[in-house]
Amino acid sequence: MSNTLLEVKNLKKYFKTTKGMLHAVDDISFTINRGETLGLVGESGCGKSTTGRVVLRLLESTAGEVLFGGADVLAFNKKELRRFRENAQIVFQDPFASLNPRMTVAEIIGEPLVINKKTSNRADLYKRVIKLMDTVGLASRFENSYPHELDGGRRQRIGIARALALNPSFIVQDEPVSALDVSIQAQILNLMDELQKEFKLTYLFISHDLGVIKHVSKNIAVMYLGKIVEMSDYSSIFKNPLHPYTKALLSAIPIPRVDKKRERIILEGDVPNPIEPPPGCRFYGRCFCRKDICKDTDPELKQVSETRFVACHVAT
Amino acid sequence: MSDILLKIEDLTVHYITDDGTVHAVNDLNLSLNKGETLGLVGETGAGKTTTALSIMGLVPNPPGKVINGEVEFEGEKLFEKSEAELRQVRGNKISMIFQDPMTSLNPIMTVRDQIAEVVLLHENLTAKEAKEKADEMLLKVGIRADRAKEFPHQFSGGMRQRVVIAIALACNPVLLIADEPTTALDVTIQAQVLELMKELKKEFNTAMVMITHDLGIVAEICDNVAIMYAGSVVEQAGKEELFTNPKHPYTIGLFNSIPDIDSDDSVLKPIKGLMPDPTNLPTGCPFHPRCDLAMPQCSEILPKRTEISENHYVKCLLFDGGG
Ligand SMILES: Nc1ncnc2c1ncn2[C@@H]1O[C@H](COP(=O)(O)OP(=O)(O)OP(=O)(O)O)[C@@H](O)[C@H]1O
Ligand SMILES: Nc1ncnc2c1ncn2[C@@H]1O[C@H](COP(=O)(O)OP(=O)(O)O)[C@@H](O)[C@H]1O
Ligand SMILES: [Mg+2]
Ligand SMILES: [Mg+2]
Prior knowledge:
The complex is a heterodimer.
Chain A: E1 4-17, E2 20-33, E3 37-41, H1 48-55, E4 63-68, E5 71-72, H2 78-87, E6 88-91, H3 105-115, H4 122-135, H5 152-164, E7 170-174, H6 182-199, E8 202-207, H7 210-216, E9 219-224, E10 227-233, H8 234-239, H9 244-252, H10 292-296, E11 302-305, E12 308-310
Parallel strand pairs in A: 3-8, 3-9, 6-7, 7-8
Antiparallel strand pairs in A: 1-2, 1-4, 4-5, 9-10, 10-12, 11-12
Helix pairs in contact in A: 3-4, 3-5, 4-5
Chain B: E1 4-17, E2 20-33, E3 37-41, H1 48-56, E4 64-73, E5 76-77, H2 83-92, E6 94-97, H3 111-122, H4 127-140, H5 157-170, E7 175-179, H6 187-204, E8 207-212, H7 215-221, E9 224-229, E10 232-238, H8 239-244, H9 249-257, E11 306-309, E12 312-314
Parallel strand pairs in B: 3-8, 3-9, 6-7, 7-8
Antiparallel strand pairs in B: 1-2, 1-4, 4-5, 9-10, 10-12, 11-12
The structure holds adenosine-5'-triphosphate (ATP), adenosine-5'-diphosphate and magnesium ion (2 copies).
């Protein structure tokens, strides 16, 4: 069995809008090994969630390939797709919006088992739901509660239990802790870590928070306006970021320390419009080390060491 | 005259609702000197916004009610003032910035006109001069004059928040209360806005209460820090002191919950349990059910605010002579 679980090649997702084609995901490639986590980080609207959704085929792609355990996900027929969906799950940012408000906790967690006919009788279903609740640290006394009666942390535990119900091997975590307070966020991050080890799970972990991303990831991909601009093992990128955008992003994080002062790079302007972007590097307009070539020639993501890739004319 | 600009003493604010009485702020003490920036830190529901609204005299009533306490601003007791006097204070001396910029912007007015309107209210200028002043303020927050005639919806989130800052500073307040002003923004945009606030604070010598849940932002721009839990300030100290020598178990728990991007293998040590229900707070110290160092008496005795070293206050029995 190959060590690679997920391989994404030249994936694109464009949306048709009244103002033209919106390049939400524009030619990205990455792989994730079994049992590992790839952290996908970037600012609002850069295409993180769209990537997660296209990989799971919750959205149809515009071009590219997605290989899951070597099989071509985009070519799956109905039956294959159903099996894939059992194996590949998603946890959303807003646990409230993603849970049916009229169902009880036990019904929400048990639903995937019922829909996929994984259980034949109520007693078995009940036993498995209670086991799942226990796995994610939800007391069984909440089985008959409704999501709105619970706090954000417990709601997120419901979402995780539901995602685990079908014994998946892969989970897209789309900002699973972004809506939570730090003390609760830390509890959930530790839980995800334990579950990954216990069930050998592979994660695509999406977040805009670099601290969280560093904590959970083996490898990190930085996205900017539909492109991966840098990909690296989790440690080197923090020590020595290569892409100017990564440098700016890292320097912008407020660090809760008073003993260290860092050089700040303040970027000019805002993230540009993803509709019909001009040729050239997407970061050109805000880049503080741009050259002429960057204006019309789109830099490719190039490997620069065993674990590092960067898409920049200046950095390579 | 003393240097103290704002002093809050024993403030208690309740919201009286059908589901019970929410103990939003409980016996809160705070003080702020002229020109100083205080970080007010706490998780959702800790009572940060309610505290800010109390200073402004804007707690919605009903359901809100100030039960006890005193807010002194420039030596005057705010709760003794009439609504008209309070409006004067709010317009000329204290400004507030909210988390969502759209709540304080008028969608059908150009940004220049919105700033000019505020300027006219507080300064004796002609309409033309007020517009010039508006353009000047916009420039200060990094928005070029050729965009002054645009409407808020034509701006990005970061630009809108900069307009709100321009409005808040247009009347040159003595105190600026910023309630999570960058929480809705991306980090690179947040960095722009924080940088701007730092510069303006220096230029205008404005005192500021910076409400945030992000200790990184506090490290970045505050002089002093107050940590809130369940409606009360549990620890207050100078920034250096609080970051290098935190004392309250909740403060320490907060620091241990944040992933550290400067080290390779950070282990998170979360605080156990959940925020208490504000309609039914635990007896004694409100943090005791989650506290690893809780002693039997913590569930019975409400700790007093104790000054453990100069300008370092802790509300915990471990430091209250009770431990
Ligand atoms: N159904 C859709 N139709 C049109 N445009 C869309 C659609 N879904 C997403 N987009 C656009 O695609 C781009 C990428 O969106 P996406 O939600 O993937 O970003 P993101 O990185 O997850 O952002 P955030 O951090 O805000 O969640 C954005 O410009 C967004 O407006
Ligand atoms: N208008 C209101 N009516 C009832 N309860 C409220 C109202 N505003 C705030 N609260 C409650 O008061 C407590 C403190 O809230 P708030 O001051 O907004 O905290 P923070 O800003 O720290 O998140 C919370 O429990 C909140 O639900
Ligand atoms: Mg998203
Ligand atoms: Mg608030």
